[in-house]
Design goal:
Membrane-bound Lytic Murein Transglycosylase D, Chain A, Glucose Permease (Domain IIA), elongated, disordered N terminus
Length: 299
């Protein structure tokens, strides 16, 4: 009996020690997963906080360091959403800059199944951007990024108005799809306006003084506003996330009428802007030419 008692105690001690090791090892294995999937969750207990913080900081650093991955576009995706979900340094403009040859001239037109490369050049441009402009720029270098991605149909607008009482509907936007571009995705067979690519929540302004004819849901146009101006022309602003005006209201040049968004039939956030001869669909005229005729610099 004494012999057995002596034999059991060491065994019990080893078992306790083994359980402690396994428990510690299990936590060590689980912690990186917790850090990777819950980097923004509540802080763990003090005993493991230091280890968790170290693990949580590793995952974002790997993305910023230039580790590339391939992402297949899914239904309902748009570049800003992908950038947020995949934690892409540089945001949607970075994805567009790196994948412009695959996406095309309009960053709002992506389709399910399209393969995008994410994070391929995330770190290098940050160090070299000030001295060496390239096609891949971080979001912070906005003017340079626009020039690098500029093609015949993609230009950068400025915060521009004119003495004639007209201004751009949105400041500092990239022009995506231009007026009259043909395509089967539009019921008319062509694009009836000009797209200004801006993130959701960007201020949308009335291009000139006028009266709001309609403000509300416009089917494929999502939330829209239509304004009649003194020359008899009508301006339309579509896909907005929220509206700041109502029908019958008088507005002034540059007055905020809502915020940009991705409502209606869209693949990503942008402002669809039209100029019409009537308040109705099908009476469109070239909106850029109209603005330029009133002294507003576009592109």
């Amino acid at each position: 009996m004494p012999a057995k008692g002596k034999h059991r105690r060491p065994k019990s001690l080893r078992l306790t020690r083994s359980i402690a090791v396994v428990g510690t090892g299990g936590a060590a294995l689980a912690l990186p997963l917790m850090g990777a999937t819950g980097a923004h969750a509540a802080t763990p207990a003090a005993a493991v906080a230091q280890h968790t913080e170290k693990s949580a900081s590793v995952a974002p650093a790997a993305v910023k360091a230039g580790t590339s991955k391939t992402y297949a576009v899914k239904a309902g995706d748009y570049l800003a959403k992908i950038a947020d979900d995949q934690h892409v340094s540089g945001g949607w403009k970075k994805i567009y800059s790196d994948n412009r040859s695959a996406i095309g001239s309009d960053p709002s037109l992506i389709h399910p199944g399209l393969k995008l490369t994410l994070g391929a050049k995330a770190a290098a441009p940050q160090a070299s951007a000030p001295a060496k402009p390239s096609a891949a720029k971080p979001a912070a270098a906005k003017p340079a990024a626009a020039k690098a991605g500029t093609a015949s149909t993609v230009t950068k607008t400025a915060a521009t108005s004119s003495s004639s009482g007209y201004t751009l509907p949105v400041d500092g936007a990239t022009i995506g799809t231009n007026y009259k571009v043909a395509g089967s995705m539009w019921s008319s067979g062509y694009h009836t306006g000009t797209d200004f690519v801006v993130p959701t929540g960007t201020t949308i302004k009335s291009i000139a003084a006028g009266t709001v004819v309609s403000a509300g849901w416009g089917g494929a146009y999502g939330n829209q506003v239509v304004i009649q101006h003194a020359d008899g022309r009508y301006s339309q602003y579509a896909h907005m996330s929220s509206l700041s005006v109502s029908a019958g209201q008088t507005v002034t040049e540059g007055q905020q009428i809502g915020l940009s968004g991705a409502t209606g039939n869209v693949t990503g956030p942008h402002l669809h802007f039209e100029v019409r001869t009537t308040p109705d669909y099908g009476s469109d005229i070239d909106p850029v030419a109209y603005l330029r005729s009133h002294g507003v610099a576009v592109g």
